[in-house]
Amino acid sequence: MTSTVQAAPAMTGTPEVHRGFWALGWRRLKRDKVAMISLVVVGAFLALAVAGWFNIIGDGWRKEVAIPYAAPSWLMQSAEETLPPAEEDTTSAKSSAPIVTMTQAEDPIGKEVALARQNMGKYASVETPLRETLPFGADLRGRDVIVKTIKGTSTSVFVGIFGALFTLLLGTVLGAISGYFGGKVDDFLNWFYSVFTSVPDMLLLLSFAAVAGRGIKTIIIVMALTSWTGTYRLVRAEYLKLKNREFVQAASAIGASDARRIFVHILPNISHLLLVQFSLLTVSLIKYEAILSFLGFGVGVTQVSLGSMLAEAPAELVQGVWWQMVAVTIAMSLLVTAFSLLIDGLRDAFDPKANK
Amino acid sequence: MFAYIVRRVLQMIPTLFGVMLLVFVLFNVFGGDPSLVLAGKHLTAESLANIRAQLGLDKSQSAQFLIFVKQVLTLDFGTSWSTQQPVSDIIGSRIGPSLLLTGSMLVVDLLIAIPLAATVAYFRRGLTDRIVTICCTIAMSVSALVYIIAGQYWLAYKFGWFPVSGWSASAWHNLWYYVPLPMLMGLMVSLGPDIRFYRSFFIEELGNDYVRTARAKGLSERVVMLKHVLRNALIPVVTTVMMSLPYLLIGALVLETFFSIPGMGNAVVLAVNNSDFPIIKAITVYIALATMVFNLLADLIYKLIDPRVQLT
Amino acid sequence: MNQQVQQDTLLSIRNLNVRFKQEDAEPFHALKSINLDIPKNATVALVGESGSGKSVTSMAIMQLLPQMQTLIDPASQILFEGRNLLDVHGAELRRLRGKDIAMIFQEPMSSLNPVFTVGDQIVETLMLHAKLSRSAAAKRALELLIEVGLPDPEKKIKAYPHELSGGQQQRVMIAIAIACEPKLLIADEPTTALDVTIQKQILELIAKLQAKRGMSVLFITHDLGLVGEFADKVVVMRHGEIREAGDVQQIFENPQNAYTKALLACRPQLEQRPLRLPVIDDFMKPGGFVSAGERQRGYQADDEIVLDVQGLAKSFDIRQGLFGKKQFHAVKDVSFKLARGKTLGIVGESGSGKTTVGLTLVRLHQATGGKALFEGKDLLAMSPKEFHAYKRRIQIIFQNPYASLNPRFTVEQILAEPMMLHGIGNNAAERQKMAQELLDRVGLPARSLVKYPHEFSGGQRQRIAIARCLTMKPEVLICDESVSALDVSVQAQVLNLLQDLQDEFKLSYLFISHDLAVVKHISDQVLVMNKGEVVEQGDSDAIYRQPKESYTRRLLDSIPQGWTGGTPALA
């Protein structure tokens, strides 16, 4: 009977903490400062987006609270000192004093006019005056750019994430079946794949959009139907590779069923790839949504997204109004940059050989 | 080799059939009835019936599909619903501008991205590498729309360095006058991801054993990089470039729309706006066909540059 | 070779201290102040198991270690012709590499650049160091290829690396290395990846070149038995230290260090078959190793036959031409009987089909012909559902311990799974208890249950794989090159474990390997396979003592003899 053997070199002296794959990766990620900062930023955006979905913030984006194209307050600081403040105007009586040429008794409709004047106070709507400036300015209809940006980001993130989820689901299931079973199923799905990849992405997107119309639900489905191919190819290649690995063959030898091998054995081994893929898809779909909405095919007219806001930009710029575009650019660039840097960090953390 | 080509061409047929099926199902089944749109101002029951008969909409779905197949095989997609021009004329006139724009963009992109990627991969893990990678990431995070809008506004409108939009009849004039601004905007979008992508190829090659052998032979780092690694890394680079060629035909959709360039992309956007199905269908089928042909070419070129490849 | 003339020293390593940076631990101390001398015109064998530091030593000489992670102590010296190589940089270093000191590696396929022809790669070295013109270099390259014994050199010089076999690729690597008449040739495990017959040829080639050119050779290997025939000096390393160094005769006939003795003893021998193979720990004990007697092997007439294989065949389809298919016959008509409680060894080189036999019997491949009778029923003809019930009775252990355990499962999950699938144990607690007992049986501590595979060494992982099979209490165990990827000392431990289990549970083994000595040690009967066919079959002692077929004899001749005393004749 053999005695206990030597431990693997790195183990001697370390305390008994057993790290699985995810724990190891997480430790590696924590060491990457850029990735951690990006994680925080992305997390903040996600929190913002969720708040927006449930209308905790950004709910009142449609309210027209300022004059059209109100400038940002920090821009107008100096201007305010030189211009006199606008006067409040609750009744129209003062400025619209009528020119009197007849006495009330002579006036054929004198009685009605007197009655109307009495009731004027009752029916006049108390309007809060439209503001001259907002923290980051207003758009064409006087809506607050900040609130609109928050809501727009929320919509774009929503579309990006759920689109990515659907795409991932579709691509993974098809890729797993194709890679694992091979044969005729693989041939059929490959044919399907080649049909979809023969048509360039934008063309396919626009074709779908042409028949499907606008709206958030539609755009999510449309983007999933066009983007599944990348995930399919990745998952299929992984399943082809892992299907013949010894641990999967061993699972077969001990009697594990096909389903068990596909979901319990192989799938966990590609989960880190799926995470990276999910992030990539989210970023790509956010960008696509912007372009689609810009071209007029994305979210509906009653909804706002980063793309639809950008659609208003060219017209605004010509009139010298730039604040909405800057707000959108900052929001979107920050989100996508942070997400992309996070994706790089994830790749490095879970597959360190890939980038050496 | 010949057997391989024949087999691949035969494989293209079911794929093309699939594309046609997809296009048909999309537009004829889901697309709704276009006869109302086409009847326009002259909407009477009679004209409606006439139009439907003309378009073959009164026949069964499968009969319509056969008509579509015939159209594809004879390369005649009828006339555009919005402009009444023959579709083939439209496509024919628009390929040129698209190719001019995307072709020049591809060339400049390669000339910049590959040397830069090789240099960055050489200094990997150093400060230069980190900085360039982050810059590329930031550059690709700004939406194409922002680049275009800002570029058009500042560089063309405000500073007047480039024309705001437009196109002319002379290819030469186009190349030097109208192409630069859209090309610049396109490069801002594409250089970032391309540099990162090519960089990963170089880094992967640098991790291979033959690099160690080359160093053991006494070759300088420069020779190792420029002779041994580059030659191997070119394989995936060329493959990637070949695979992206079909996309040149569709043109840069967004660029063409903004800069009023009469290319294929612009045609698609207009057609989608106008629900002009013949154009969309035709362009989709043509592009699909071109993609398949280019993929085959890519595989053949791959065989030429990588001696390990066996075409089965 | 074995000349007794007083030599000058060509290369002298003094106090070489190398550490590697690690992610979140102390730097790993790879070499602990080692001292090594390489005389002129001699072959020095550097022997050690994995992790001993032998490769690190050789790479340090030419500064091929990864710069970012390597920390070399400034007091370390590698003296070559009066200079400290560790201080040499830039152009001077490059002149040294390939010209004065040349190196060949373990994997010739990946060490050659796949996109350049073989000739171009030799010419490159010649043009760089010997400053020849391209045409002169091409001529010289051809001469070199002839010298290294590459068949068909005029044609092969224009071939790409992937078009050559492993042995031919290694010859090309050797040609590149000797092209500029180096004074020192470093060979880092050059034959480990090659078949045993090819290995012999390459070793003879290196010995011949060494004698002809009077260069020194630093030969690195994990196999002590390999070096006895052609080394002048032997250096034994373990855990970054040199345990023993001396003349080859002294090391083999009179080893001083316990580890050296252990290394020599724990390889299975052809001449004897101890009850248990000695392991390192046996020699580290104060009393030293005491031999326990021999084991007799062979089939008896009254042995119960548990598995009867008749005419097993397996072909693969390869596409050819436009629509045609070619058949590759991996296994052609293999028949044998496996007796209960005994071991049948299948031995052959790569491509012989031995692994395919194993995989087909557990139905990981679909057999194209033949029967496998188990309790009278044909395992190959059953439906998958029927076969499921038999799966627990015939199990397989794979070669690669790093790939046979699911990286995301804990050891407990790995062991519990087969129990769950076959309804063994009524609940999780029972299964855990059984898993613990099995771990104990294979020599692993109970707390291994919560660990992940990557926390174990290769030998430990094979034990877990064995434990996994044992959970189902199988009757037949197929060992597909199960010890081939392990170090010699670890291999001995696992072989002893397998033998203990066979004695206790009356398991029947089908032991597949390319290593003839191991097969002879553990098998009662042996099957010799070549290109899918059975060449010879019989009791293991009989085959090894009196091989009938020429192929078997060639195989046996290729086994490294170890030290045989005196100057053996070169082939």
Automatic annotation (TrEMBL), chain A:
Keywords: Cell membrane, Membrane, Peptide transport, Protein transport, Transmembrane, Transmembrane helix, Transport. One of its GO terms (cellular component) is plasma membrane. Residues 153-343 form the ABC transmembrane type-1 domain. Pfam families: BPD_transp_1, OppC_N. The chain crosses the membrane at residues 34-54, 157-182, 188-211, 218-235, 262-283, 290-310, 322-343. One of its GO terms (biological process) is protein transport. PROSITE patterns: ABC_TM1. It is found in: Cell membrane. Its main location: membrane. Belongs to the binding-protein-dependent transport system permease family. This is Peptide/nickel transport system permease protein.
TrEMBL record, chain B:
CDD domains: TM_PBP2. InterPro entries: BPD_transp_1_N, MetI-like, MetI-like_sf. This is Peptide/nickel transport system permease protein. PANTHER family: DIPEPTIDE TRANSPORT SYSTEM PERMEASE PROTEIN DPPB-RELATED. Residues 95-298 form the ABC transmembrane type-1 domain. Its main location: membrane. GO terms for cellular component: plasma membrane. It comes from the Bacteria. It is a multi-pass membrane protein. Keywords: Cell membrane, Membrane, Transmembrane, Transmembrane helix, Transport. It is found in: Cell membrane. GO terms for biological process: transmembrane transport. Belongs to the binding-protein-dependent transport system permease family. The chain crosses the membrane at residues 12-31, 99-124, 131-155, 175-192, 233-259, 279-302.
TrEMBL record, chain C:
SMART domains: AAA (SM00382). Pfam families: ABC_tran, oligo_HPY. Residues 13-264, 307-556 form the ABC transporter domain. PROSITE patterns: ABC_TRANSPORTER_1, ABC_TRANSPORTER_2. Gene3D superfamilies: P-loop containing nucleotide triphosphate hydrolases (3.40.50.300). GO terms for molecular function: ATP binding; ATP hydrolysis activity. GO terms for biological process: peptide transport; transmembrane transport. Coiled coil: none annotated. SUPFAM superfamilies: P-loop containing nucleoside triphosphate hydrolases. Keywords: ATP-binding, Cell membrane, Membrane, Nucleotide-binding, Transport. Belongs to the ABC transporter superfamily. This is Peptide/nickel transport system ATP-binding protein. It comes from Silvimonas terrae.
